[in-house]
Batch of 2 targets.
Target 1
Amino acid sequence: MFQRIEDFHDWLGEQERSHSFRVRLAPLDELAGWSSHPELGTIRHSSGRFFSIDGLTVGTGHGPTRSWAQPIIVQPESGILGILVKRFGGVPHFLLQAKMEPGNVRPVQLSPTVQATRSNYTRVHGGKPVPYLEYFQAPRQGRMIADVLQSEQGSWFLHKRNRNMLVEVTGDVPVLPGFCWLTGDQIGELMLIDNLINMDTRTVLSGFPSPKRQEPSPGDDAAAMSWFTEAKERRTLTRKQIPLNEVKGWLRSPERISHELDRYFSVIGVTVEIDNREVTGWDQPMIAPCERGIVAFLARRAPSAGGTQDDGELQLLVQVETQAGTLDVVEIAPTVQCAPGNYDADRKPPFLDHVLSAPASRRLLDVVYSEEGGRLYHAENRYLIVEVGDDFPDHAGEDFLWMDAERLAGFGHYGNHVNVEARSLMACLRFLDLSRKGGTRR
Amino acid sequence: MFQRIEDFHDWLGEQERSHSFRVRLAPLDELAGWSSHPELGTIRHSSGRFFSIDGLTVGTGHGPTRSWAQPIIVQPESGILGILVKRFGGVPHFLLQAKMEPGNVRPVQLSPTVQATRSNYTRVHGGKPVPYLEYFQAPRQGRMIADVLQSEQGSWFLHKRNRNMLVEVTGDVPVLPGFCWLTGDQIGELMLIDNLINMDTRTVLSGFPSPKRQEPSPGDDAAAMSWFTEAKERRTLTRKQIPLNEVKGWLRSPERISHELDRYFSVIGVTVEIDNREVTGWDQPMIAPCERGIVAFLARRAPSAGGTQDDGELQLLVQVETQAGTLDVVEIAPTVQCAPGNYDADRKPPFLDHVLSAPASRRLLDVVYSEEGGRLYHAENRYLIVEVGDDFPDHAGEDFLWMDAERLAGFGHYGNHVNVEARSLMACLRFLDLSRKGGTRR
């Protein structure tokens, strides 16, 4: 445990210095252990495990682009993302791990206690045992705080999801090298630092129950669910896996697969050398987005019973979003979630300009986070929460809804309702004191 | 409105007498408007709408039968099941409809205010407008009580679901011929009658909020969700649509498709003549189960804070169930749900004997209901709730869990968590006073 946050940074610096880590780009066609099907093009590992990269055609009944084809990561098995919780002096502490991942811009980030695919923890690749796994597999000791299958990026993964777990224990827990206990306040402080709290930690922490646990009124509850149900009915999503070689609009070279307009992302290869993971080196394909994205909630305070806005419930403008890999037509997403360069100037997503032009005084949060560093290469998003003025409309179209933050957390307790980008922002809301206007570091 | 329930029965008798209705079996290969693909065998309507009957292979990683092939109904579009609610003298009344359906044993049953597939209400087949539809389609008046996509029988339908809606209005509602207002108490009384409240009414009513609205403690909440999540992880479900002609173990004649052991169900054809529906007659294929099934909850009272069992929360022994058409690996199902004749004597489902041998004094509910009469022919289940003795075990294996009835209702507010058979029993729990031991009619 760290008395001062400076002590944490000293510890993290030691972690970063004590391990060597090297990631080099490598031609997609020369990755050890990986091969492409000679006719279909599908990229697979020789063991048949881990994941594959295949082609997908997508048809949706809405939006400016109603159908397209793209490469996509297919990873049918789900893993465990688990954080161990223990109270010291009554204060919950979270056991996090300083972990290197090949796709990270800042190589070492704070990951969950356990972050393991099924291939990892069943040790298909013959690595070391996953530490602390026993706390998250039956028969478990400890009290389950949360345990739910949650989706990951639908733009890049087909139906991928991981089990998000929070387990509270009371007995002694040995702290292994590379692990540390942090309080919620400390995590909140570290969340203001770019690229430090990794995606898996953020999604798990988004499920840590709020002490408020205010239940929404039955009416609001039903109205929010109805909005979500109606979107599922209004939209369609048809998909078909196709050979990677038949994905139209994408160009394949021995080095990489890229979109013909240099938009969206590329499929690249990397060679990893590392000395503190289960294995010491490997090759793998990765998805590399073309640019940093924007993920933002517009926020407002609902008028309180007293009639003033300052102490009312925080409300977020949520939208329904359909992506290539979404399991069930739509999920609830942030107000804005996009890579701006993917859109022509006359087709910018709604509210993007509003978010980008907001003065600092309205930005309750403004920080850059990495997405999952095990499959995604230098995938960063700028995460913002932007307060709107009183003149902002109540109704922003059928795809949008002002929703109490607590109601959104309620949806988050069930899987496949709230997407991973929204859950990242919810973790910030849960662990940061956002009432400090302009209190972020930018 | 009916002052006495006898008045309702008089009204229903009039409804039954005032309409002619005839259903005859017809050879599958001679249904007007329907044809089979010459090579694949798939049965489709000439319009391409409504539904089709196709083949499916199913692989599961558990249970005595781990893989099989079967015919299945494919109905990608979902419809609206909506019940209008209005308070008269402060008491909620529900607008139900006396509706004939071709598959019903008792032809006229009480259906929701609106029970319409998308083909129905968009009038693909050129029928009459669907009455009261405007209350359930945007822009709506009234207050949304519930609105969620719910699954239907996974044994017979692939991913079928319908939108379950309850809308409360305050203004005048004209009562059209064939419709009536019933109170919750009256519906409870009618639920004790065999084959009167249809499946669609039951599933919609299961979502009517309990006045208790007791929220489960966060710990119980997480434990129940964890059990459900773990089952999704433990089990696998792989499926592939195949040509109906290639379904192994099933025999096709010009008349019907049946299993070689005469188990499960047959696909048959019917010719319908009717004078009060959107159209006056049609042919269609239907699924006809081989025998009446058993659907049952084992139930107990949790010890209350005062230490006595009589006033504790009602708990139900729920199980996770994987069926051919289940959208997401498992759903929460009743303790027992089976057609006994489908099993060899040495492989009977758990607790079936317990349910069937329970004395009348332990049967809190015992009634026969029809399943959906638009696609299923004479599909009946005997629905039971059976109280267990004090010596019944707390732990009944990893696929079972004792769950507070209120917690189960919480899962029911989200789609694809609780299956349609369990929701039928939940509707009984919601509308019947089950504290009257042995108060049912058998």
Note: The interface with chain A takes residues 78, 138, 143-149, 163, 165, 209, 213, 215, 218-219, 221-223, 225-226, 229-230, 232-233, 327-328, 398, 413-417 of chain B (CB under 8 Å).
Target 2
Amino acid sequence: MVASPSHRPPRPPRPEPPALLYAHAARRARALAARLRGKRPLFICTIAQTDTARIPGLSAAGATPELRELTPAADAEALYYGSARCLHGVPANPLGPPGPAIITIAALRLARIPVLVVDAGTRVRPQAPAIRLGEVPGACLTGGQAVPDAAGLYQRGYLLGAQLAGCADYLVLGESVPGGTTTALAVLLALGLDAAGRVSSSMAANAHALKEATARQGLAHLDPAAVARDPLRAVAAVGDPMQAAVAGLALGACGRVPVLLAGGTQMAAVLALVHALRRAEGRPLDPRRVAIATTRWVLHDPTADLAGLVAQLGPYAVLGSGLSFAASRHAPLRRYEDFLVKEGVGAGGAAVAASLRVGASAERLRRTVERVYRALPRANGSP
Amino acid sequence: MVASPSHRPPRPPRPEPPALLYAHAARRARALAARLRGKRPLFICTIAQTDTARIPGLSAAGATPELRELTPAADAEALYYGSARCLHGVPANPLGPPGPAIITIAALRLARIPVLVVDAGTRVRPQAPAIRLGEVPGACLTGGQAVPDAAGLYQRGYLLGAQLAGCADYLVLGESVPGGTTTALAVLLALGLDAAGRVSSSMAANAHALKEATARQGLAHLDPAAVARDPLRAVAAVGDPMQAAVAGLALGACGRVPVLLAGGTQMAAVLALVHALRRAEGRPLDPRRVAIATTRWVLHDPTADLAGLVAQLGPYAVLGSGLSFAASRHAPLRRYEDFLVKEGVGAGGAAVAASLRVGASAERLRRTVERVYRALPRANGSP
């Protein structure tokens, strides 16, 4: 039989991105994924605010500086209600794209993963249930007294983590902290990592120089010997409340269940912290207990180096979600592929957990995120 | 062979109390116990304070009126730490016996049941992680405006309950609310139950007359037709914040997992509330989804009638723990058998859950409670 002239061979299907990526300690990452497949996760988003985020030019986690004040509360609300209460839709990037909360919401819904919110210290409280671990936001890290109650936050986080470990087969710990990559950089440097130029950003053009200058200002107040004895001093001086709380959650839980730190270089700082805390106690952390799970955009971020940070700590697994918006018909979502938004609200870890729980493909995840995006109220990210 | 004269036959073993009691809808209660056996529960203690508790003569939940202010916070702390932070040991009865938190602590430890604390509205905040659902304590019910935000507490509780249902095979919902049997009486009366003389008390001599006079003063402000349309009006007028929050938790969760309301007649008020809420919505609550689990002391309380209250609602199961201190060598614990302390902090429900989870006998529970009791700091219940 001869094909008619009008017949064209079908276009070869666009190669689908894999659901899971293995970016560091790949064999260990694959083994962890195999161990968690089908298991029941619990997702916990820890929110916090700092005065560090008020330094102009550091953060794009919010459409305007005024709206940035609402970002952690709005993200927490969006996780419960599907969109925020204190603003329309979800927190957005100044250039328009919706924030990463839509990914987290979609992934948790798709796989029916339960979510809890931890408030480690906020000015604007979410209109949603939150586990209060701290009462005050962080100060500006330049003063060298960013989180005076770091030890208390850690201890309460530890207690809570020990209980939450009884509620699931593993924990996925995300965050929403504007300005958090700067406090991450400062804590990584305080803990002795070669971190300059390696942390990610909520902006496409990563403000490395400003971040480093800001971090160095805070670090001038810090005695490295004191940090070696007590790594929480790094957070107390130049960190943010989320770091202490999530470090506590992770170490409180990881004796009983595996823990996925859901984020990019902010979670590298938390990993560095738990690694240092356990080393200071003389019982090194087993790298099979804690891993990082993040997005493709963080893993491919040309302005940052997550794997290079983790490699300085040890063979901790870094997993990624293959989720891509390249094939999306929604222009604001396609901007993710320009690295305009990369991570936040545990988006990558939630996507990884959804793929592990129900076998969600990257395409199915994308379609679910698109549905969440279309259902958002108009005037996205405005009050 | 002839027994030597010094031989005495061994004393017959003291008959051990059964681990579980079935006090109402016994067949349904047995079926529920069979369904939950071995399953993984999550225990949630909701704390709240009210000005109603400040009326002299109503509550013995605390060694003195001053210490009673600390009771909900101290109970929450004791669940996390084994004893309170804001006072020594656990809240105690004015006549000496340690409060029921020791039972809850023992049961949860024995069966490794995870615990979370919900704060529905307190003046004294616990030094422990708590999920904040409300910011203000309840007013005195005599004014008829006891919980202005009852609807908000209910809604946030519902949201949270829907998430927590994904964290366990069933939920056990306890409370610590001084003065709570008076707000329970008022809400039961507001919802149309024949409750006078039927609620329990933290005191051996139940102050029925004072409770009823107090409740009636609040009820004078209430329009029964409004309550029929919206049962939360009963809580808003004459209840306490815990009732609205736990009703939300229960209805948010019970579509997915069974819910045990862990308490005595205070939980009868919550049951009456969720029953009425669902009836007002035109979709009656399935009595297999929600049950009450309490202590032997509540079930045998000569001054109250839990089963008589539940019978007015429908065939809801009431389970009890067989835990008894009759055989204890600790005199303060034996005072429970005089009905000096009966229930609180979800003690009965936690004990039931421990028996269901690990098959703990009443005797093993007693021995575990005794160990918790002996480990308490001296000067029990003092600041």
Note: The radius of gyration of chain B is 20 Å.
